[in-house]
Design a protein that fits this description.
The complex is a heterodimer of chains A (312) and B (378).
Chain A: E1 5-16, E2 19-30, E3 34-38, H1 45-52, E4 60-65, E5 68-69, H2 74-80, E6 81-84, H3 96-106, H4 111-124, H5 140-152, E7 158-162, H6 170-185, E8 189-194, E9 205-210, E10 213-218, H7 220-226, E11 230-236, H8 241-250, E12 254-260, E13 263-268, H9 274-283, E14 288-294, H10 298-311
Parallel strand pairs in A: 3-8, 3-9, 6-7, 7-8
Antiparallel strand pairs in A: 1-2, 1-4, 4-5, 9-10, 11-13, 11-14, 12-13
Chain B: H1 5-18, H2 20-40, E1 48-54, H3 59-69, E2 74-79, H4 83-91, E3 97-101, H5 105-110, E4 118-121, H6 126-142, H7 180-202, H8 204-211, H9 214-218, H10 224-253, H11 262-287, H12 290-307, H13 320-326, H14 330-344, H15 348-372
Helix pairs in contact in B: 1-10, 2-7, 2-10, 7-10, 7-11, 7-12, 7-14, 8-11, 10-11, 10-15, 11-12, 11-14, 11-15, 14-15
Classes of the chains: A alpha/beta (312), B mainly alpha (378).
């Protein structure tokens, strides 16, 4: 076993009756790495995270967290992990400090060490001046940070975050990611699920999950390069958008065409095909305002991967 | 071994303390129920309205009426002048019992003859009627009206042809006044505690599921038994506070004698509470839904505790099948313990079997709820 590996997942699957929620997923996460698990709602993200936290029993395959098997030694796994669930496991009627003391207590922290650690996470989460506020009275962003503080109070070596930024404003999200990166730089392995593609840029490594299957893994830059062909952005008159989309989808040189806000993204074999595409649109009487090759975003990568998956 | 029971207890206490409405409910409900049931179902029939049709009108007749009213069991609500009026008084509900004193009553007494009097009792409320009749009998027999004015006994109709060959002298132990509250209040304590305890914990685990905090607990190294104990112990303490309140009301308000050991009372209450709280905890863990768990808790504790514990109806009078069912009702055993400690002043030597059952029941419920709270979602 590689001692730098915090999470090792091999062919992990979960079936609910006949429904396959997670289908033979394999990946690895190193210490100090932020691993982003991306996919639409219902794609198997939460199911995977729950199996790795020892909450759900896998149907087949293995998952090692901190070197311990999640199916056979869940207690050992639980001692080493922090888990922040989608709903934020906070006690509404308890104050910020009482919540932290509670979580410290159930992880066996006591005495001066518990108090010192509590003060540490209070400072880290920027909640020191709100320690007496009841959890239910905190705004969304602070609730999220309290949930994170509760999940890390026992200094876990692996941290699982299930949609940690859902329903949180953009500034709080940015601050949250800074916290996460900071913890990773101190050696904590972080496994985070999200369906915000822009957040994926904060991760060292990504896994795309779609309908229970891991369709790609790798660092964001590699994934973007891996998108073969070249991505072209087309801007037309707003009234001609649908017509242009149909034309591009029918074009023999265009592999994929999709709406992207008020613009169209088309994947071509190479940038040399741009004039041909422009001509095809002109033939339909569609005036092209602007056309250029662009660097793909992760969303483009995901759309393209899904298209390939569906086509296969 | 590190113990995580205390952090959970502390958290539960804070949650209970901040939920003032529930706390007030928990502390006042036992008193309200004691007063409601203590008075509502008292079988002491006192101050029964009596209509008197006195045809005699002489001092001995008035003395007879006085004997009846001086006991507090009867109160004269109507003095009537005819049988028709007497009937009307009972029809209208002004009186439940009518007393007719014949015109020759004093004369008969004076001559040393048996002096019959007549009672008419409203039988539409059979319970009150039968108790009133037994009270009439008791008062009549004790009416050794003083030799000067009433030499012979006053007999009820129908009057005995011969003096009774056996003289009956009853000696009632433990509750010599046969005060029904002495009998009811200890029983009521069992019923109230059973319901209250099951209700209290029925919400506690289900709430964690509903609010999403359970996942956090499952992902922690917390052991199911630690969670169960941490959840149940705060409520044991609250339950014991209720026991103290109930005992105070019983002793100082209802004047129920407490002959036995207070320590034994508290110890057996603790054991009983553990089992009753375990029922709620089990339902909470099994249903994962506060409302369903709460309603089930009320349903499965209230009626059996009221009807099958011997609180209302004596178990000896039940058909065998039902009697077998009562052996599974924990309140039945606690009731024996409570009546034993309160009224008889007996101790462990007598009550150990009941205590053993309650202890077994508590262990069973706690094990069942720990098992039900699995640390994995399948």
């Amino acid at each position: 076993m590689n001692s730098d590996l915090a999470i090792e997942v091999d062919e992990l699957s979960k079936r609910f009756g006949r429904f396959v929620a997670v289908d033979r997923v394999s990946f690895q996460v190193e210490r100090g790495e932020v691993f982003g698990f991306l996919g639409p709602n219902g794609s198997g993200k939460s199911t995977t995270i729950r199996m790795l936290c020892g909450i759900l029993l896998p149907t087949s395959g293995t998952g090692l967290v901190g070197g311990f098997d999640v199916a056979r030694q869940p207690e050992r796994v639980r001692e080493r992990i922090g888990y922040m669930s989608q709903k934020f496991s906070l006690y509404e009627e308890l104050s910020v400090q009482e919540n932290l003391d509670f979580f410290a207590g159930i992880y066996g922290l006591a005495g001066p060490d518990a108090i010192a650690r509590r003060e540490e996470v209070l400072a880290l989460a920027g909640l020191a001046d709100r320690r007496t506020v009841l959890a239910r009275e905190l705004p969304g962003g602070l609730r999220q940070r309290l949930a994170l503080a509760s999940a890390i109070i026992h200094r876990p070596s692996v941290l699982f975050l299930d949609e940690p930024t859902a329903g949180v404003d953009p500034i709080a999200r940015r601050e949250f990611w800074e916290l996460i990166r900071g913890m990773a730089s101190e050696g904590t392995a972080i496994f985070v699920t999200t369906h915000y593609m822009d957040e994926a840029e904060h991760c060292h490594s990504l896994g795309f999950i779609y309908q229970g299957r891991l369709i790609a893994t790798g660092p964001p830059s590699t994934l973007k390069r891996g998108l073969d062909g070249s991505l072209v952005e087309v801007e037309v008159e707003s009234g001609a958008l649908m017509g242009a989309l149909e034309t591009l989808q029918a074009h023999p040189r265009a592999r994929e065409a999709a709406m992207f806000g008020a613009k169209l993204h088309v994947t071509l074999d190479s940038p040399e095909r741009i004039p041909g595409v422009q001509a095809a649109l002109a033939a339909r009487g569609i005036a092209v305002r602007h056309i250029q090759a662009i660097v793909p975003s992760l969303e483009d990568v995901f759309v393209s991967l899904v298209a390939r998956e569906v086509g296969a | 071994m590190r113990s995580c029971i205390w952090p959970i207890m502390k958290k539960e206490f804070i949650e209970i303390w901040r939920d003032r409405r529930s706390l007030a409910f928990v502390l006042t409900m036992p008193v309200l129920m004691l007063l409601l049931y203590g008075y509502g179902i008292s079988s002491d029939v006192k101050r029964v309205p009596l209509a008197v049709y006195d045809l005699d009108g002489q001092p001995p007749a008035r003395e007879l009426v006085r004997r009846f009213t001086s006991t507090d069991y009867f109160v004269v609500t109507a003095q009537v002048g005819s049988l028709w009026e007497l009937r009307r008084a009972i029809d209208l509900g002004i009186a439940k019992v009518g007393l007719t004193i014949p015109e020759d009553f004093s004369q008969n007494l004076g001559a040393g003859r048996t002096a019959p009097i007549q009672f008419v009792v409203d039988g539409s409320d059979s319970n009150t009627a039968s108790i009133a009749i037994s009270n009439i009998a008791a008062i009549s027999q004790n009416t050794e009206l003083s030799p000067r004015d009433l030499r012979p006994q006053v007999y009820l109709s129908p009057r005995p042809e011969h003096p009774a060959p056996i003289e009956l002298r009853t000696w009632v132990w433990y509750n010599p006044e046969l005060k029904s509250s002495n009998f009811l209040i200890p029983g009521l304590t069992a019923v109230i505690l059973m319901m209250l305890a099951a209700m209290l914990t029925s919400l506690t685990v289900a709430r964690e599921w509903e609010r999403g905090t359970m996942e956090g607990l499952i992902a922690s190294p917390l052991h199911p038994v630690e969670l169960m104990l941490g959840k149940i112990l705060p409520y044991v303490i609250i339950g014991l506070v209720d026991v103290v309140i109930i005992v105070l009301v019983a002793v100082f308000w209802f004047r129920v004698p407490l002959h036995g050991s207070l320590t034994l009372l508290m110890a057996s209450s603790t054991i009983f509470l553990l089992g009753a709280l375990g029922i709620g905890l089990f339902l909470s863990a099994a249903t994962k839904n506060q409302q369903v768990a709460f309603q089930l808790a009320v349903l499965i504790t209230m009626l059996p505790s009221l009807l099958l514990s011997g609180f209302f109806y004596p178990i000896e009078n039940m058909p065998p099948a039902l009697r077998a069912v009562t052996t599974l009702v924990p309140a039945r055993y606690f009731l024996v313990i409570l009546r034993g400690i309160f009224l008889k002043g007996v101790g462990l030597v007598v009550l150990w079997r009941e205590l053993l059952f309650l202890a077994g029941f508590a262990v069973l419920m706690l094990m069942a709820s720990s098992a039900k709270f699995k640390k994995r979602l399948e």
